[in-house]
Amino acid sequence: MEKSDFRPGYARHHRSHWSFSVPRVTWLAASSCPRCSIYTRQVSSGSTLRCSGFSRSALSDEDFRESLREGVQQFARHKAVDEPAWQEFSSALHYQRGQFDDPSSYRELADRLAKIDGEHGTAGNRLFYLATPPEVFPVILQQLGAAGLNRPRGDGFVRIVVEKPFGTDLESARQLNHQIQQVFTESQVYRIDHYLG
Length: 197
Fold this sequence. Notes:
The chain has helices at residues 61-75, 83-90, 103-120, 137-146, 170-181; strands at residues 9-11, 26-31, 50-55, 93-97, 126-131, 158-162, 189-192. By secondary structure, it is of the alpha/beta class. Helix 5 links the parallel strand 6 and strand 7 (189-192). The longest helix has 18 residues, at 103-120. The radius of gyration is 16 Å and the shape is globular.
C-alpha cells in the first residue's frame, strides 16, 4: 500500500468499520484496557502486519494474546475460534508495558518497535491508535513527539488515530486539534468521533 492510500482527516465511525489492509506496518494501540485496544478483521498469509499494545498493565506478549483471545471469544459474532487462524494472527501481537507520562517508557517503546522492524520487515511504518481516556491524549501526544515517534524513518510512514470523544465542545476540540498539530502534521492524523461532520 502506498503512503497516499492513507487518507487523513475525519472518519465517521458509525458509518463504517476500519479495516486496514496493510502489508508492512506496526500498529500500536495505546489503551487503558488491553482487551479493547486492537480491532483487526484479518491478517493475510505472509503479511508483516504487527500489532503492539501499550499500557501500564504488567503483561507479557503471551498474556496480551490470551487477553485478546478471551475478548474475541466473548464478543465475536462467531464464537468458535479457528485455531490455525488464531495462531497465525496472534503471532503478530506484541505488548510493551509503559506509563503514558513516562519518557523512558517511550524510549523503550521506540526500541521495541525498532526490534519488530528488524525481525518482521515492517520498515518503520507506524499507525498509533489512541483508545485511551481523552484526558491523557495531550500527554501521549507530547511523549510521542519527545521520543521522535512522530517522525517517519526512511521511506516509512507514521499515522495517528485519535479515538472519540474529540473534545466535549467546539473550544475543547480546537484545543485538542492544536495539541495534535504541535506534534503531527495534518496528513498524519485521523480523528474518530460519532458526532463529527
